[in-house]
Design goal:
By secondary structure, the chain is an alpha+beta fold. It has one domain. It has helices spanning about 10-15, 30-35, 65-70, 85-100, 105-120, 125-130; strands at about 5, 30, 45, 55-60, 60-65, 75-80, 135. About 20% of the residues are buried.
Length: about 140
């Protein structure tokens, strides 16, 4: 759970030299740190960076990574990517999905409808753009 995480802006200035990490505020949010939080009542976490749905496989336990950490911490549904994603394609997908959610659509349906819309688009119809994102949860 320490090998899965998100690096935030400013990490290079916060950790210029090995050994000077402040693990409470080092610019990296690990899956282990996420599991230590209480996200009970959170409907949706969106991890739109590259490969956020990947993790380590543990025999008999499944995949450990960011997606699982957020679900263990109480998030109802998590959207994550399975491979490197296009910045422009991700922006298109997320903007349209959030618009639908803000209009009251269920997050699962909003992701599905957005992906179907992108399939019909000449600019965004390549599967590697719209199909990188999957949702797990209730």
């Amino acid at each position: 759970m320490l090998r899965s995480g998100l690096a935030f802006a400013g990490i290079n200035t916060n950790a210029q030299f090995l050994g000077e990490l402040d693990t409470r505020n080092d610019g990296v949010l690990t899956a282990l740190e996420v599991m230590g939080k209480d996200f009970t009542g959170t409907r949706l976490a969106v991890l739109s960076a590259c490969e956020t749905g990947l993790g380590e496989i543990h025999e008999g336990e499944g995949v450990y990574g960011l997606r699982r950490a957020f679900q263990e911490a109480g998030v109802r549904s998590v959207i994550a990517s399975l491979w490197e994603v296009s910045d422009a394609g991700t922006q298109e997908l997320m903007s349209n999905m959030y618009r639908r959610i803000n209009q009251g659509m269920d997050p699962h349906m909003a992701l599905r409808e957005t992906q179907l819309q992108m399939i019909q688009s000449k600019e965004w119809n390549a599967p590697y753009i719209w199909s990188a994102f999957m949702m797990q949860g209730r």
